[in-house]
From TrEMBL:
Keywords: DNA-binding, Transcription, Transcription regulation
Organism of derivation: Arcobacter nitrofigilis (strain ATCC 33309 / DSM 7299 / CCUG 15893 / LMG 7604 / NCTC 12251 / CI)
Designated name of the protein: Transcriptional regulator, AraC family
Domain HTH araC/xylS-type: 224-322
Signal peptide: none
GO MF annotations, alphabetized: DNA-binding transcription factor activity; sequence-specific DNA binding
InterPro entries for the chain: Homeodomain-like_sf, HTH_AraC, HTH_AraC-typ_CS, PchR_regulatory_protein, Tscrpt_reg_AraC-type_HTH
Top-level taxonomy: Bacteria, Pseudomonadati, Campylobacterota, Epsilonproteobacteria, Campylobacterales
Stored Pfam families: HTH_18 (PF12833)
Transmembrane segments: none
Keyword field contains Transmembrane: no
Length: 328
């Protein structure tokens, strides 16, 4: 049985360092009847990125009440302790066990409320990196949004991985840098955080490229249906989200599975199919380039002509000129 620790019981200490409105670093250390040797460190960079470090142990089993009051964000969280941490949504109906020496990637919405549970007389060490959503998406360049290890309203964990040795070295060093003063030392701290972000996101990208992706017979059937929908609607194709819905498959599997099965992305396949259909029309019908462009779904004829030449090596007008006419 654990004690419920309400936010007001520790917020007074934490709110002095988090959130920060301007780029700067702050820290707080305190002890009381509940917390033992507790440290909160926070550094806000000028890039839409923040770093937060939490280190503590507790006299008794504790469940900390938490509420995210900042804007919707993405995060990377490292559990560097040797103990698991249990996260529950505010209804206490769903929980997630954050394994030791692992890190998670996910998203959290404004006003999301949860509980984090810690056992007595065990030291916990957690590092957080928070990103503005657009910054995170631009950095990752990988669509993890369809993956979900744990999801409740307002919170989602998309990936969990074991912390590697390079990450561990940086994570061990980061808290020691908060005692240093001066712009040069702050620049060094920032460079270490950036290095940690680079190593972490690069590992995610490499894993995404290497991970095997198996398709069952139902998936294959759905993907062929998606292909058929595209070929029948080239002038006005559905969005990826709508195509997934119409094909009875989730968007993640649609994108990954389509490339695995047909050797091309959904967009790449659609473009190739459009261009080949355009060439057939040009060779067999007496219509102008503008009409052909529109028929295969290109509103801008200049764009159509450009990608047509890139794909076939000739302009569409040359196809028209070389078209053989047969008179009866």
């Amino acid at each position: 049985m654990s004690i419920i620790l309400q936010r007001k019981e520790y917020l007074e200490k934490v709110e002095k360092i988090y959130p920060l409105d301007t780029p700067q670093k702050k820290s707080a250390n305190f002890n009381n009847k509940i917390f033992k040797k507790t440290s909160f460190y926070h550094y806000r960079m000028g890039l839409g990125i923040s770093y937060l470090f939490f280190n503590s142990s507790f006299e008794k089993n504790i469940t900390m009440e938490s509420k995210h009051e900042a804007n919707d964000i993405s995060f990377i969280t490292f559990n560097q302790s040797i103990h698991p941490i249990k996260l529950q949504d505010f209804s206490k109906k769903n929980d997630y066990i954050f394994k030791p020496k692992h890190y998670t990637i996910g998203k959290i919405n404004e006003n999301f409320q949860s509980y984090n549970t810690y056992s007595s007389n065990k030291e916990y060490c957690t590092h957080y990196i928070f990103f503005e959503n657009k910054i995170f998406q631009d950095l990752l360049k990988e669509d993890l949004t369809q993956k979900s290890l744990y999801e409740v309203d307002g919170f989602k964990i998309m990936e969990e991985m074991i912390t590697n040795e390079k990450q561990k070295l940086i994570l061990n060093e980061l808290p020691t840098l908060f005692s240093l003063e001066g712009k040069l030392q702050e620049l060094y701290l920032e460079s270490k955080i950036i290095d940690l972000i680079y190593i972490t996101l690069n590992d995610i990208k490499n894993l995404s490229l290497k991970e095997s992706f198996e398709l069952n017979s139902k998936d294959i059937e759905c993907l062929y249906k998606a292909k058929e929908i595209l070929t029948k609607n080239i002038s006005n194709p559905p969005s990826l989200k709508m195509l997934a819905h119409q094909s009875a498959i989730n968007e993640f599997k649609l994108k990954k599975g389509f490339k695995k099965l047909f050797g091309n992305t959904v967009f790449g396949f659609l473009q190739e199919y459009r261009l080949n259909e355009a060439k057939k029309i040009l060779l067999n019908n007496e219509i102008n380039i503008n009409e052909v462009s529109s028929l295969v779904g290109y509103k801008n004829v200049s764009h159509f002509s450009k990608i047509f030449k890139e794909y076939f090596g000739v302009n569409p007008i040359q196809i028209k000129k070389n078209q053989k006419k047969v008179y009866i």
